[in-house]
Specification:
By secondary structure, the chain is of the alpha/beta class. Helices cover 27% and strands 21% of the residues. The protein has 2 domains: 2-308, Aminopeptidase (3-Layer(aba) Sandwich), CATH 3.40.630; 325-409, Roll (Pdz3 Domain). The strands form 2 sheets. It has an 8-stranded mixed beta sheet with strand order 1-2-4-3-5-8-6-7, with helices on both faces. Strands 9, 10, 11, 12, 13 and 14 form a 6-stranded antiparallel beta sheet that branches.
Length: 410
């Protein structure tokens, strides 16, 4: 059946709109990819584990089915480095933790073009969780399957590999990163040890958690300030009634950050955090497969819209320096990355952390930390950089429209 689908795709040479592809792209294949990667037998795909190896083997097999080339004769790029404690909470970038052995899985679609687009997503997750893993259920030693985070992104990557066979303005390098959960390790390693010259890269697209498109069809796109070309393409390609929430900064807790630091335009697609984020309950039954399909077509259409721009111009984002602060404190919350109406809305509160101890709750909107006003995610990050461990500060929040103050001890 797969062979028939791919032969049928080959008849559509020159096709320029995903609307012509919608009937032949297999939502069943998307389900199959997510279901395999989120199966218990992969034991949470923790970097360096037997489950990571099984996932890498599966992705390699799918690359081969899709006709992607293995640069240097192998789809695998092995790395050994040290991880961060929790990049998703602190927005740190690599280093300082346990020594990790991992592998990126890389496939190349060579159209003989002068430039190459990198399409990436991480395939690792938290294994069995536990203390120090980044799990939000740290007392539970259970498999964290990571169906949304980030089997969904890898399924999208694989579908794009099928769709982009006949969009020949660029070559396409598909990278399934490992070590993301421990500090963007795989992507950081790749940009320092690239299998293709960085000078040939046009731009990078990162899919991290695209499996929970909500009823409002809200999709966050981070990094839109990294090139002036992004906004026009993003807006023109939105034929899917998606509510787009843009963030300009090229720095965030996912693999596009590694490319931004190399002066490469890079964006991330994200359907938002949820109550199952980094918990054993992030399972395949909760994935919105129709949403993944629409996001896949949307990304495809953005790439087609960018065909008229032979090479994207890179721009540094204004507030990137605020995100690079070496934070000494944290509230211990998960921000709502889809919220952009003033302040920082909390999506989840970690037990026994400063916000939890101060009786802060999911849905609270932080508008001031100490003397620092919080108007958005960037000013929230700036606020965290202004305090030391052991300090007690007043944190002003909005809860159900009412202003209140909580005393928080970092």
């Amino acid at each position: 059946m797969r062979l028939f689908i791919f032969l049928f795709i080959s008849l559509l040479f020159g096709c320029k709109s995903s609307k012509n592809l919608i009937n032949i792209t297999q939502i069943g294949q998307i389900k199959s990819d997510v279901t395999y990667l989120a199966d218990d037998k992969l034991e949470g795909r923790r970097t360096g584990s037997a489950g990571e190896k099984l996932a890498a083997e599966y992705i390699s097999m799918r690359y081969q089915e899709l006709g992607l080339a293995a640069i240097g004769g192998s789809y695998l790029q092995h790395f050994k480095t040290s991880g961060a404690s929790n990049p998703h909470e602190d927005h740190q970038h690599g280093g300082g933790g346990e020594v990790v052995n991992g592998m990126n899985v890389i496939g190349f679609l060579d159209h003989g073009a002068k430039t190459t687009v990198v399409i990436g997503g991480h395939y690792d997750h938290l294994g069995y969780g536990g203390k120090g893993s980044g799990s939000l259920s740290p007392t539970k030693n259970q498999i964290h399957n990571g169906a949304d985070d980030n089997a969904s992104g890898i399924a999208t990557l694989l579908q794009l590999a099928a769709l982009l066979k006949h969009v020949k303005s660029n070559n396409y390098l598909f990278i399934s990163f490992s070590g993301e959960e421990q500090g963007l390790l795989g992507s950081s390693f790749w940009v320092k040890n690239p299998t293709l010259a960085l000078s040939k890269i046009n731009y990078m697209i990162n899919m991290d958690m695209v499996g929970r498109l909500n009823g409002e069809r809200t999709l966050a796109i981070n990094g839109t300030g990294t090139s002036p070309s992004w906004d026009t393409a993003i807006d023109k390609a939105n034929r899917y009634d998606l509510k787009i929430v843009k963030s300009e900064s090229g720095v965030g807790p996912s693999d596009h950050t590694s490319f931004y630091y190399q002066d490469i335009p890079a964006i991330q697609f994200f359907t938002g955090a949820h109550k199952d984020y980094h918990k054993p309950t992030d399972d395949v039954e909760l994935v919105n497969f129709d949403g993944i399909k629409d996001i896949t077509f949307y990304i495809y259409d953005i790439i087609v819209e960018l065909d008229d721009d032979p090479r994207l111009v890179f721009t540094k984002t204004v507030n990137a320096s605020a995100m690079q602060t070496d934070f000494k404190v944290t509230l211990g919350v998960m921000p709502d990355y889809l919220y952009n109406e003033g302040g920082m809305r909390i999506d989840g509160v970690n037990e026994n952390r400063p916000a939890y101890n101060a009786d802060m709750k999911a849905g609270d909107i932080v508008i001031q930390v100490g003397h620092v006003d919080v108007t958005d995610m960037m000013t929230y990050m700036k606020a965290l950089g202004a305090f030391e461990k052991g300090q007690t500060v007043d944190v002003t929040i909005l809860r159900d429209g009412k202003k209140m103050t909580k005393k928080v001890t970092f």
